[in-house]
From TrEMBL:
Alphabetized UniProt keyword annotations: Lyase, NAD
Catalyses which reaction(s): dTDP-alpha-D-glucose = dTDP-4-dehydro-6-deoxy-alpha-D-glucose + H2O
Enzyme Commission number: 4.2.1.46
SUPFAM superfamilies: NAD(P)-binding Rossmann-fold domains
Protein name: dTDP-glucose 4,6-dehydratase
Source organism of this protein record: Aquamicrobium zhengzhouense
InterPro entries cross-referenced by the UniProt entry: dTDP_Gluc_deHydtase (IPR005888), NAD(P)-bd_dom (IPR016040), NAD(P)-bd_dom_sf (IPR036291)
Lineage: Bacteria, Pseudomonadati, Pseudomonadota, Alphaproteobacteria, Hyphomicrobiales
Gene: rfbB
Length: 354
């Protein structure tokens, strides 16, 4: 099995590549532009594996994508490359439209060109898995869950760009017959998570005894999914998911942001006690504009049709995650000292520096 993975140097992509190369034994080509969020250190575990190679390329570059398809000749594409941080999309939407919309279009076209010329047996077996987010569905009230049939209602430039890319992927299946499957997953967490996202930011700020920022009152609810559970779900969906279908992926682990932060503080109080409880570092800050109140996934289709279950619950997953950051300063310290040191992103307030 030859799998082309885009965005494989990112958080979820690297978990997927490590899983495909080490556990599944697939031949993998990782295609990644290496933006600020891409990191070859996340692929260190597979760097000398004979069944993995890496190509630094932009998915918006049609010639590079055509060349990647022609030379690698994949049986399957798993498309994860994206601009992924909501806060950055608020102050800089252009990169999100470029990569998430134009990039997905470019990749779909390269895949279609290559797939059209395949012999019929390989053509039938070919799959293009488009990896998306539950944020395309907008925000839930206190009750209810996102299902595959929930109408799209994105709030942020990020989720709007992902929604656009989902529609393109669906259209390429319906119009051209490209064998596309789509997955929409909830918030991931786990090792190798770039420190701008809530969970690693809180862990690393707490270790540095810096303020722990919580947007608004911290009542926003997210449905947390351990990244290795997601990687396994993606492989399953790409292998056995039905063409033209969508699959929601979620761990049935809803938590309020404030409770996530407090849990991390409690774990650090045990693992790295330093006299004062880490909770004292919590600071409530101005909310994110357009902040969705609640996301929660109904994963029944994935569970019943493909027999998938999350192996980690939030309590086991968050302990593993905190432990990983404590043991892997080599990975995160250069990021904290370099590309991102924990400053607030995505605020619309102007400052003296603007
Ligand atoms: N993180 C989550 O909780 C979450 C939840 C649901 C869905 N998703 C989706 O999963 C996918 C992966 O998310 P992630 O959290 O790993 O993101 P990430 O930001 O950690 O990684 C994205 C990767 O894509 C690469 N990339 C960006 N622009 C590119 C371009 N133009 N060409 C080639 N490579 C490019 C980056 O270098 C990086 O390695 C995304 O499509 C995202 O929308 C993420």
């Amino acid at each position: 099995m030859r799998i082309l993975v885009t965005g494989g140097a990112g958080f979820i992509g690297s978990a997927l590549v490590r899983y495909l190369v080490t556990d599944v034994g697939a031949e993998v080509l990782t295609v990644d532009k290496l933006t600020y969020a891409g990191n070859l250190n996340s692929l260190r575990a597979v760097e000398s594996a004979s069944n993995h190679r890496f190509l630094q390329a932009d998915i918006c570059d049609a010639a590079a994508m055509n060349e990647a398809f022609e030379s690698f000749r994949p049986d399957r594409v798993m498309h994860l490359a994206a601009e992924s941080h909501v806060d950055r999309s608020i102050t800089g939407a252009a990169d999100f439209i470029e990569t998430n919309v134009i990039g997905t279009f470019t990749l779909l076209e390269a895949a279609r060109r290559y797939w059209s010329a395949l012999p019929s047996e390989q053509k039938d077996a070919f799959r293009f898995l488009h990896v998306s987010t539950d944020e395309v569905y907008g925000s839930l009230g206190d009750d209810g869950l996102f299902e595959e049939v929930t109408p799209y209602d994105p709030s942020s430039p990020y989720s709007a760009s992902k929604a656009a890319s989902d529609h393109l992927a669906t259209a390429w299946q319906r119009t051209y017959g490209l064998p596309v499957v789509i997955s929409n997953c909830s918030n991931n967490y786990g090792p190798y998570h770039f420190p701008e996202k809530l969970i690693p930011l809180i862990i690393l700020n707490a270790l540095d005894r810096k303020p722990l920022p919580i947007y608004g009152t911290g009542a926003n609810v997210r449905d947390w999914l351990y990244v290795d559970d997601h990687a396994k779900a993606l492989h399953l969906i790409a292998s056995r998911g039905r063409v033209g279908e969508k699959y929601n992926v979620g761990g049935r682990n809803e938590r309020r942001n404030v409770d996530v932060v407090k849990r991390i503080c409690q774990i650090l109080d045990q693992l790295r006690p330093d006299g004062t409880p880490h909770e004292q570092l919590i600071q409530y800050v101005t909310d994110r504009p357009g902040h969705d109140a609640r996301y929660a996934i109904d994963a029944t289709k994935l569970e019943t049709e493909l027999d998938w279950r999350a192996e980690e619950n939030f309590d086991t997953g968050i302990e593993k995650t905190v432990q990983w950051y404590l043991e892997n300063e080599w990975w995160w310290r250069p990021l904290r000292d370099g590309v991102y040191s924990g400053q607030r992103l995505g605020t619309l307030e102007t400052t003296d520096e603007d």
